[in-house]
Write a structure and sequence with these properties.
There is one protein chain. With about 230 residues, the protein is an alpha+beta fold. The chain has one domain (about 55-225). The protein has helices at about 25-30, 35-45, 50-55, 70-85, 95-105, 110, 135-140, 185-200, 200-210; strands at about 90-95, 115-120, 125-135, 145-160, 165-175, 175, 210-215, 220-225. Strand 4 and strand 5 (about 165-175) form a beta hairpin. It is globular.
Length: about 230
């Protein structure tokens, strides 16, 4: 099936204050940037096609919750990085897939919303497996269904325009594989929508404005600010 309709303008996210706990405001939004991209990508499905691309049950998503030591190590990294960004100091953070999945597993807000995410890194690429209740994506317009997705992608950052850029490598939504020939067109629509959503959030805007590079390198998410 060929899907061409451009995504609708995504709803503005709720404003958050600095000093969040859990994954940390600055990082959590970035760790879930693909989730935001999925929201934008729903425009390709269109509301009338929502039922065709969603399921009545969630997909079986891998789950990893590491040790307390791993969680505390990741949180220590986040606390130091958040402090430096909030104080406009140069900073670098490296997060492995195990650290990110442990942070996701212990995030109370994701558990409350029944959002399941699992990240895998392979050299310079990432794979995100997700199962998201449609209530979380449509503000309760569509209920009791799930958007199940499996997306592989690369990450780049344009330091001149301060924009986060996704390179879609493969995408399966529900039981439908998006044609690879369509992926470049899809990402040209998703990337502006994604950055608009991120910049509407004060904490994300702060991070993007200070970022020097955001990339997946050596099986880690690496963020450098200036």
């Amino acid at each position: 099936m060929t899907i061409y309709a451009p995504p609708p303008a995504p709803p503005p996210p709720k404003k958050r204050k600095f000093g969040c706990c859990g994954c940390g405001c600055l990082i959590l939004g970035l760790l879930l940037f693909l989730f935001v991209g999925l929201v934008a990508g729903l425009g390709y499905l269109g509301y009338t096609n929502m039922l065709a691309f969603t399921s009545t049950s969630p997909a079986a998503i891998p789950f990893f919750d590491g040790s307390d030591d791993l969680y505390n190590t990741a949180n220590t990294k986040l606390t130091a990085f958040n402090h430096d960004v909030l104080n406009h100091q140069a900073a670098t953070i490296h997060l492995s897939g195990d650290e990110i999945n442990t942070l996701i597993a212990r995030d109370a807000d994701l558990r409350k919303k029944n959002i399941h995410l699992f990240v895998t890194f392979s050299d310079t690429q990432a794979r995100l497996q997700s199962s998201i209740p449609t209530e979380a994506l449509t503000e309760n317009l569509v209920k009791k269904r799930y958007l199940n997705a499996d997306i592989s992608f690369g990450v780049d950052f344009d330091s001149a325009t301060k924009a986060l850029l996704l390179e879609l490598l493969a995408a399966q939504i529900g039981q439908t594989d998006l044609p690879k020939d369509n992926l470049p067109m899809v990402q040209t629509e998703i990337n502006p929508a994604l950055n608009a959503v991120l910049r509407n959030d004060p904490t994300m805007k702060l991070l993007l404005d200070q970022a020097k590079s955001i990339e997946i390198k050596d099986n880690e998410l690496v963020i450098v600010t200036e």
